[in-house]
Design brief:
globular; mainly alpha; 5 helices; 88 residues
């Protein structure tokens, strides 16, 4: 699959998580950062989407420790939570 199609698929998955809160966090992160991601970072994000939303959200807001295999620069960006846009 080419990069453009892969990112379209990831965007859909990021914005259709099941709850508005997860959509805003996970989808908002994708929208804000995906254009600058390397192939390795796209791989990381794609794998992250396989995790449960409650876990991703808990790691992002700091209510649960981040497992070592997810820890790193991408998780630090996710934890900033400065990318969520609320509708007017």
């Amino acid at each position: 699959m080419n990069r453009t199609d892969r990112l379209k698929r990831l965007r859909f998955r990021a914005w259709h998580r099941g709850t508005k809160e997860a959509d805003l966090l996970i989808g908002g992160f994708f929208d804000r950062h995906h254009a600058a991601w390397s192939d390795e970072e796209v791989d990381w994000y794609e794998a992250l989407l396989e995790e449960q939303d409650v876990d991703i959200m808990a790691w992002a807001i700091g209510t649960q420790p981040v497992p070592a295999h997810w820890d790193g620069e991408m998780m630090r960006r996710l934890k900033r939570v400065d990318y969520i846009r609320f509708p007017e």
